[in-house]
Design goal:
Helix 1 packs across helix 9, helix 2 packs across helix 5 and helix 4 crosses helix 5. This protein has a 5-stranded parallel beta sheet with strand order 2-3-1-4-5, sandwiched between helices. It is an alpha/beta fold. It has a single domain, classed as Rossmann fold, CATH 3.40.50. The N and C termini lie close together (about 10 Å).
Length: about 200
C-alpha cells in the first residue's frame, strides 16, 4: 500500500513524515528530494534549465540556484509550466523506483504537489496535513526567511485548501504542538496496519 502525504507549504508535512519514519519504521519517499536529484550537475534536466534561463541560474559550484529559479518561475506562469513539463515525468520515475524498494508494511509518498502533479494516482490513500492559512504563512516566512509575497505566490501555485481536502482520505490537523501531531500520526499508523490485515 502506498499512502500519499500532502499539504501546503509550511503545513508540517516533514514533521508528520519524520514521525512515520522514526517511530514506525515506514519507508518515506520525498518528492521534494527527488526534485533536487533530477537537477543535479550532470543531469540532462539541468542542461535544459541553463539553456532556457542562462548561466546566471547556477551557483558558483555549478549546481542549480534554486531560489533564483523559484523567483523566475513564480513570476511567470508560462515559465513554471515549462519547468513542470520538464521535471514532473523525471521526478515521477525517481519516485516509482524508490517506492519499489520499500520493505515496510506500507510506504509514504510525501509531496506538496501530490494532487496537482497527478502523483496521487500512485497512491491508494491520501493524507492531508491541514493548517489555517495564516499559520501556514507565518511559519513559512519564519522558517525560510523569505518575503511574505513570495510565500503567497507559492501558496497560489499549490492546490487550494478545499481542493486538497476533496482528495483526502485522512486529515492531520496541525494547529497545535508537535506532540499533538505525533499522536495523530500514531493513530493513523495503527489504522493502516489494521487495514492491511483485513482480507482484500
Amino acid at each position: 500500500m502506498i499512502i500519499g502525504l500532502t499539504g501546503g507549504i509550511g503545513s508540517g508535512k516533514t514533521a508528520a513524515a519524520n514521525r512515520f519514519a522514526a517511530a514506525h519504521g515506514i519507508h518515506v519517499v520525498d518528492a521534494d528530494q527527488k526534485s533536487r536529484v533530477v537537477v543535479e550537475p550532470g543531469r540532462p534536466a539541468l542542461t535544459h534549465i541553463v539553456d532556457r534561463f542562462g548561466e546566471a541560474i547556477l551557483l558558483k559550484d555549478g549546481s542549480l540556484n534554486r531560489s533564483a529559479l523559484r523567483e523566475k518561475v513564480f513570476a511567470a506562469p508560462q515559465e513554471r509550466q515549462w519547468l513542470e513539463e520538464l521535471l514532473h515525468p523525471l521526478i515521477r520515475d525517481e519516485i516509482i523506483s524508490d517506492l519499489q524498494s520499500a520493505n515496510s508494511p506500507y510506504a509514504l509518498l510525501v509531496s506538496p504537489l501530490l494532487v496537482e502533479s497527478g502523483q496521487n494516482n500512485l497512491t491508494s490513500r491520501v493524507i492531508v496535513v491541514d493548517v489555517p492559512e495564516a499559520m501556514q504563512l507565518a511559519r513559512t516566512v519564519e522558517r525560510d526567511a523569505v518575503p511574505e509575497a513570495q510565500v503567497r505566490a507559492i501558496m497560489q501555485a499549490q492546490a487550494q485548501r478545499e481542493e486538497r481536502m476533496r482528495h483526502a482520505h485522512d486529515v492531520l490537523t496541525n494547529d497545535g504542538d508537535l506532540a499533538a501531531l505525533h499522536a495523530q500520526v500514531d493513530a493513523l499508523h495503527k489504522r493502516y496496519l489494521e487495514l492491511l490485515e483485513r482480507p482484500q
